[in-house]
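pasting for the record
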Amino acid sequence: MKQEQVTPHQPKQKFAVLALIFCSVVINYMDRTNISVAAQAISADLDISKLEMGMIFSAFAWTYSIMQIPGGMVVDAIKIRVLYPFILVAWSLATIVQGMVSSLAALIGCRMAIGFFEAPSYPANNKIVTQWFKEQERASAIAVYTSGQFIGLAFLMPVLAVIQEYFGWRGLFYVSGAIGIIWAGIWYWLYKEPAETEKTLSDKPLSKQSQKPVQQAVINWSNLKVAFTSRKLWGIYIGQFCLGGTLIFFLTWFPTYLAEYRGLSDINTGFLAAIPFLCAFAGVLVSGFVSDWLVRKGISNEVARKAPIIIGLLLSSCVIFANYVDSTAWMTFFLSVTFFGNGLASINWVFVSLLAPKHMVGLVGGCFNFIGGLSAVIVPIAIGYLAQDGDFKPALMLIAALGMCGLCSYLFLVGKVEQITVPSDMELDSAAELVEASIIEGKSK
């Protein structure tokens, strides 16, 4: 695998790359969540119960979670320019097929296919940011592309509701899938690997860091021992699971909660659902830019990186207060505070590049997203079970408890924020020093 490094890129190039990731994340989450917009119509058309719908919501995560670790390894081994368009086309085709089926089993199969092919996407996003951005820029970069899942859905929820109103739930899937296929072609045409862009910048020698030797990807299952025995890494894994539990509620059951439990119409549900997503968008941007600003001011990672996540997880527990209000305005307020907190904590991907051994960024990212993905397996079914009689109060209590559990994980397990070192990392550094010394010696002769 290539040792992760940042080479001198122009700001214009980095912003273009970030824009590509942002748009990809919007499409990624559109194809994850269009099922939540269509859920009521599908249930009525195909006579599907709440527990069965919980299984459909969960099915995406069955394969998404299982494929996170292999997906992270694939990200380390295959060029992003090739990998990303392939998975985009694959999950978009599965989305289109989803609009053609008429049985519970077929819907579950399509959701599993979408999860399978979306699995490498977030490890790939993290690797791109690690390659293109310096450490003190990464939280902002992660905040920008992560905000795509919130700002995109904030505007897409009403749009998807309108599409369904005119074309039905099947047409909703056809349109969503077609957009992904078109974007795959745009990605392949516009994205360049960092090594390719360096050649066009100048003929000046690269920095000493970029002269360090590069190690080709090796899928090494023994690295799993490191990934799953570190207390620090388990701290961020558990935190990601808890954060994902809140997110998955908003991505799956939230429109049903508004329509059935709160009695809102489909169109009103689409517009009202946009408000918490906008708050989450604000939260993730505030978190990312403030966190990087604190790092540039010399504030420790324990404060600059951890504080937004801890505060965000605390705020996400405010969802429980929605159980004790009747007005739509107060309900919207508490759910918006909850999702703002979720957005605030969503820069937790920065801990993958901060803590992971140098040669294991993709693998640790896969493990991180695997554990987080388990929340999308468990929580939708748990909510379907808890709310099968139409009462969502126990479900919101579950979401609040997850927020507090995640907070404790970052407080007591992560500890000091420092990169984990393993023997292969030290060997790489020694080899780099030897090469650098030989270059200097050669120049002096």
